[in-house]
Design brief:
The chain is mostly helical. It has helices at residues 2-25, 37-42, 54-61, 72-85, 89-118, 125-141, 147-150, 155-175, 181-201, 207-220, 237-260, 272-291, 316-333, 339-351, 374-385, 393-417, 421-431, 436-452, 457-472, 480-491, 498-510, 516-529, 537-545, 555-573, 576-589, 593-605, 609-622, 629-646, and strands at 231-232, 235-236. α10 packs antiparallel against α14 (339-351), α19 packs antiparallel against α20 and α27 (609-622) packs antiparallel against α28. The longest helix is centred in the first third of the chain and has 30 residues, at 89-118.
Length: 647
C-alpha cells in the first residue's frame, strides 16, 4: 500500500495544483466577451450550428478568416461550444480553462522527461517528479497566461499549444527510450499528426518544429540513451544540427529582407524596420512580465507602447539590441558547461520568431508568451535545484514560495478584474491612460449605461465624451472614438460637430487604414440604415467612401468599402443602379463569395433573375470548402421564389 502511495503521490499533487489553478481562475469565468471576441465568435454565424451533420461541421471548420489557414480546428471547437451551450461566454471561458489545465499536465510530463535526461546519472525519480510539478505549477498560475484563458478567441493560442506540447511530449518519450523501428514509426506519425493539428489551430504551431529541434540540440544533444554521440555516417548528428541552425538563420534573413526594405506601413503605424527595432524592446518588456509580473503592466491593451523610429529613438532601442546580442553570445559561450541557459533563451526566441519579427502584426500581445515562458521556468527550477550553498537554501526556499504565491495572487486579482466589463474597463484605463483602446472601451461602457439607466443619461454622456476625447489624444488613436461620437450625438439628438466629421474623413483618408475601420464603417452604415444615426446623406457617403482615397489601402479593404456603399445605397437611397455599380467595383477588387451573393441580391431586387443566378453560380464555384452552402442555398431559393412571383 505504501508503494502505491509513493507512486501516486505526484499525481495527487498534480491534481491538487489543477484544482488550485481552477479556483484562482474561477472569478474570471463570469466575465463577458472582450475586444475582438464578438467579431470572431458571436458575429460568425457559421459556428452557430444547430446539428452535428457533416455539412454544418464542415462549414464551421472552414469559417475562420484569421491567418492564412483560417485556424479551422479552433473554429470547430467554438462551434461545438455553441452547439452545447449557445453563446454563453461562461462556457467558452470554461473550455479555455480546461485546455489550460491540460496544457499544465503536458508540461508536467515534458518536464519530467527532460529532467530524467538531464539527471540521467542520478536516477532520482522523486526529485525529477517534484521539479516537474513545480514547473507545471508556476506555468499554470502565471498571470501572463491569463489572456490565453479569459480572452476567449485566444483559444487559438492555447489549443495550438496543446497539440504542440503533445508533439513535444511524444518526441521526448521516443528519445528517452531505446529506439526500434515500430516505436519510431508510431512516434513519428504521432508527432506529425499533433503538429498538423497545432498548425491548423493557429499558425504559430509551426514554431513547435523549431522547439523540438532546440530540445534535441540543447537537452538530448544528439546522444542516445547511453549518452553516446549519434552519428550519421562519420559525421556527428550534433554538428549537423548546429549547421541546420546556421542555415535557418540565413533563410530567415533572406525571407525577411524584402519586408524590411519596404517602407510602406500598410495598415499599421509603423513599417517593418520600425517594427523590428520596437520588438527588441518588446522582448525585454515580455521578460519583465515573465520574471516580475506587475498588475500595472499586465493588460489586454498595449497599444500605448512607443514605436522605435530608429536605433536611438528611444535610446532603449539601442540598449535592447545590445542586450539581445549579449545574452545570445553569453548563452552560446556557456553551452558546453551549462546548456540549460541556451535552451531557455533559445526557447524564448524561437517562440517569438513568428509574431515578434517581420510579419506586420500588432506590436505586442501577452498571449504571445503562452508557451514562450516554459523554457525559462524549466531553467530556473533546474538552477535552484542545483544550488550548492546549503546555509542559505532555506532562505531561498522561503523567497521562492513567496514569489510563487504572489504569482497566484496576481492571477486571482486579474481574474476578479476580468469578471465584469465595468471593472475591467476602469482598471485598463487607469493603468494605461494613453491607450486608445482602453479609453474607447471605457466610453463604450458609459454608452451602454446610458441605455440601461436613462435617468442618469446626462452624467453618463459627459463621462463617455470625456473618455472619447482622451482616446482622440491617446498615443496612437484609431477611429473608434470618432465613430462613437457620431453615435453619442445621435443618441442625445444633438447636432454633430462638423469638426468631428472632417477629422474622421481626414483620418480615414490619410492615416493607416486599420483593420478595425471596416467594422466601424459597417456599424455606422447599419446605424444610418436603422435611422438611429441621422447624418445627412451626403456626409454619410463621404465618411463611408473616404478610405477609397487612402494611398495605403489594400484591394481587400477597397472591396469591403464598396460592399458597404452598395448596402447603404440599397437600404437608404433605394438606388439599385448605383449599388450595382459599387458591387461591380467590389468584385473587381476582390472576387469573393460574399460579394457575388450581395450582387445576386441586388439583381434579384431589380428583377434581373438571370444575372442573379449567374452570380449565385459564381459564388457556388468559389465556395470550394462548402462553408457558404447555407447562404448560397437561401439566396438561390429567394431568387427562385421572386422569379415565380414575378411571373
Amino acid at each position: 500500500m505504501k508503494q502505491i502511495t509513493q507512486k501516486t503521490k505526484p499525481l495527487f499533487v498534480l491534481f491538487s495544483i489543477l484544482i488550485f489553478t481552477f479556483l484562482i481562475y474561477a472569478p474570471g469565468l463570469s466575465g463577458d466577451y472582450v475586444f475582438d471576441d464578438i467579431a470572431n465568435i458571436v458575429e460568425n454565424q457559421k459556428i452557430a450550428i444547430t446539428s452535428l451533420d457533416y455539412m454544418s461541421l464542415k462549414a464551421a471548420f472552414w469559417s475562420g478568416d484569421a491567418g492564412p489557414l483560417g485556424r479551422p480546428i479552433s473554429m470547430l471547437s467554438f462551434a461545438l461550444n455553441y452547439y452545447l451551450t449557445a453563446f454563453n461566454p461562461y462556457y467558452f471561458k470554461l473550455t479555455n480553462l480546461i485546455i489550460h489545465l491540460l496544457n499544465g499536465i503536458l508540461i508536467y510530463f515534458i518536464s519530467l522527461k527532460l529532467f530524467f535526461w538531464i539527471f540521467l546519472k542520478e536516477q532520482n525519480i522523486k526529485k525529477n517528479q517534484y521539479l516537474a510539478l513545480i514547473v507545471s505549477f508556476i506555468w499554470l498560475i502565471h498571470p501572463l497566461n491569463l489572456t490565453s484563458v479569459l480572452y476567449i478567441v485566444q483559444r487559438m493560442t492555447s489549443l495550438s499549444t496543446f497539440f504542440g506540447l503533445l508533439a513535444l511530449l511524444i518526441y521526448c518519450h521516443w528519445r528517452s527510450k531505446s529506439l526500434n523501428f515500430s516505436s519510431s514509426v508510431l512516434s513519428i506519425c504521432g508527432i506529425l499528426l499533433a503538429l498538423c493539428c497545432s498548425v491548423f489551430s493557429k499558425e504559430s504551431g509551426l514554431l513547435f518544429v523549431g522547439l523540438i529541434y532546440w530540445v534535441e540540440l540543447c537537452i538530448f544533444k544528439a546522444r542516445n540513451t547511453r549518452h553516446e554521440c549519434i552519428k550519421i555516417g562519420k559525421i556527428g548528428l550534433n554538428y549537423i544540427l548546429w549547421s541546420g541552425v546556421f542555415v535557418v538563420l540565413l533563410g530567415l534573413i533572406y525571407i525577411a529582407w524584402p519586408y524590411v526594405i519596404n517602407l510602406n506601413p500598410g495598415n499599421r503605424d509603423f513599417n517593418i524596420a520600425e517594427r523590428l527595432l520596437s520588438e527588441s524592446r518588446v522582448l525585454f518588456y515580455y521578460l519583465k512580465m515573465i520574471f516580475f509580473p506587475l498588475l500595472s503592466d499586465l493588460s489586454l491593451y498595449h497599444d500605448d507602447f512607443e514605436v522605435s523610429k530608429n536605433i536611438t529613438t528611444p535610446i532603449t532601442t539601442l540598449f535592447s539590441i545590445l542586450g539581445l546580442l549579449f545574452i545570445s553570445i553569453f548563452s552560446l559561450i556557456l553551452y558546453k558547461k551549462n546548456s540549460i541557459i541556451l535552451f531557455a533563451w533559445g526557447w524564448f526566441i524561437i517562440s517569438h520568431l513568428m509574431e515578434s519579427t517581420f510579419i506586420s502584426l500588432e506590436l505586442i500581445h501577452e498571449h504571445r508568451n503562452y508557451f514562450a515562458s516554459i523554457g525559462f521556468i524549466i531553467a530556473v527550477v533546474y538552477g535552484l535545484s542545483e544550488f550548492k550553498f546549503n546555509r542559505v537554501r532555506p532562505l531561498i526556499y522561503i523567497v521562492c514560495t513567496i514569489y510563487i504565491l504572489n504569482l497566484a495572487f496576481t492571477t486571482w486579482q486579474r481574474a476578479v478584474i476580468w469578471s465584469n466589463l465595468v471593472d475591467h474597463a476602469a482598471f485598463e484605463v487607469a493603468m494605461h491612460p494613453s491607450s486608445d483602446r482602453a479609453n474607447y472601451q471605457m466610453a463604450r461602457i458609459y454608452l451602454k449605461l446610458m441605455e440601461k439607466e436613462p435617468e442618469r443619461k446626462v452624467y453618463y454622456a459627459d463621462q463617455a465624451e470625456k473618455y472619447l476625447i482622451q482616446a482622440h489624444e491617446s498615443y496612437k488613436p484609431a477611429n473608434g472614438s470618432w465613430f462613437a461620437q457620431l453615435h453619442l450625438a445621435s443618441y442625445l439628438d444633438k447636432p454633430i460637430s462638423d469638426d468631428v466629421i472632417q477629422q474622421l474623413i481626414y483620418n480615414l483618408t490619410n492615416h493607416p487604414f486599420y483593420n478595425s475601420n471596416i467594422g466601424f464603417l459597417s456599424a455606422f452604415t447599419q446605424c444610418q440604415i436603422q435611422q438611429f444615426c441621422k447624418l445627412p446623406h451626403d456626409q454619410a457617403v463621404l465618411i463611408i467612401s473616404a478610405g477609397l482615397n487612402n494611398p495605403n489601402i489594400t484591394p481587400e479593404f477597397q472591396s469591403e468599402i464598396y460592399k458597404i456603399l452598395a448596402q447603404y445605397f440599397v437600404s437608404v437611397a433605394m438606388d439599385y443602379e448605383k449599388a450595382e455599380e459599387f458591387m461591380l467595383d467590389a468584385i473587381h477588387y476582390r472576387n469573393d463569395i460574399n460579394g457575388n451573393l450581395l450582387m445576386a441580391q441586388i439583381y434579384r431586387l431589380q428583377g434581373k433573375y438571370f444575372l442573379a443566378k449567374k452570380h449565385i453560380g459564381i459564388a457556388r464555384n468559389l465556395d470550394v470548402k462548402n462553408s457558404w452552402y447555407k447562404e448560397i442555398a437561401i439566396e438561390n431559393r429567394n431568387v427562385e421564389q421572386a422569379e415565380l412571383l414575378g411571373k
